[in-house]
Amino acid sequence: MIKFSILTFLILGVTYGFSRDFSSKDGFNPLNVVDMIVTKGYPVESYEVQTEDGYLLTMHRIPYGKTNESGPAPNKPVVFLQHGLLSSSTDWVVIGPDNGALGYLLADAGYDVWMGNARGNVWSRKHVSLNPDNPLTRHQFWDFSWHEIAIYDIPAMIDFILKTTGRAKLHYVGHSQGTTVLFVMLSLKPQYSDKLLSAQALAPVAFMSHLESPFVQAIAPLVNPLDLLTNLLGVDEFAPTNEAFELGGYLACQDASPIQGLCSNILFLMFGFDPPQLNETIIPTFLANAPAGASTKQFAHYGQLVNSGNFCQYDYGSVTNMIKYKSATPPAYPLDQITAPIALYYSDNDWLSAVVDVMNLVSKLSNNDNFIGAFHVADPNFNHLDYLLAIDVKFLVYDDVINIIKIHDE
Known about the structure:
Helices cover 40% and strands 12% of the residues. By secondary structure, it is an alpha/beta fold. Strand 3, helix 3 (102-108) and strand 4 (112-115) form a beta-alpha-beta unit. Helix 1 runs antiparallel to helix 10 (260-271).
């Protein structure tokens, strides 16, 4: 129902826009992440990284901030930012420097900022041999969940950053799925704990049985059999960003639109209600860049976590599980293998990362001698999306994030 609601308001936006003589797209000029950074007067660089299994990922870099406009200082400490599901590197700059976007704050604080893009999103929709749109290869291209992002994409990007910068270690900050892939990578590839000076998880997602999001609750029962889910969300690929979505989201949600309030309510239904923290002026640009694309299998994997109450690998069914895992059930991720310094940030009104589920995660990570701690966001209405868009996100979250990074600098 939520998916259809999103489509409804996008269609309404297009209809309203054309009725306002937007057919020539006058007034519609959504910026992508590179444009956003350039227009704010910051330097930006783009890099392409190849994973072990052939996916081509685009990374965006802000090498220095406005406080160092003469150029990057040598041997700067590095921070790697990783987005959540259906998102992109845009998340870290979309609210702009004046509103405290983390990418700009870190650059101005003297850090070399790198922003990743997971396979399948609009910036990383490429492979050395598989075409995501070709009927002969599309299924193979989209046959991944966030598990593959964790074991291939994140390590490839970290290794590329360290090689390019000459640094031995970096700081990691992830949001939502960006935290899931962190936990998976560090549990299955524990050597990467030694490459992290610190790791900070905003709205951590691992255990999910207590979430309140109607959207995820609606799809969770459909993951078995999978064809029910694919009929709802799309076969192989979910919600690719395209011109119609961009135009509809922009026109429906701009300040002049009479249905702008509907945009806010759709976001709240997915992530939790917090009207005082939402700057509605940001919504058109945010929705012009999101959803940024993903595999339907990523949703299915999350749905399995909701149903099982466990944090485990993808469930292919007992027969295939026996072949793949030598077990009828998928193995749990060994969180006890994680030794990196990790900080978690959680909030009471996060409908995708429930407090009780975060506390379950804390119980698994706190045996790590390097565990930094779990930090409760003071605003009782702070929701899942507020970690990126909230008016007061700098004071409520980002100041603490930057302080912990500084404490753990080499």
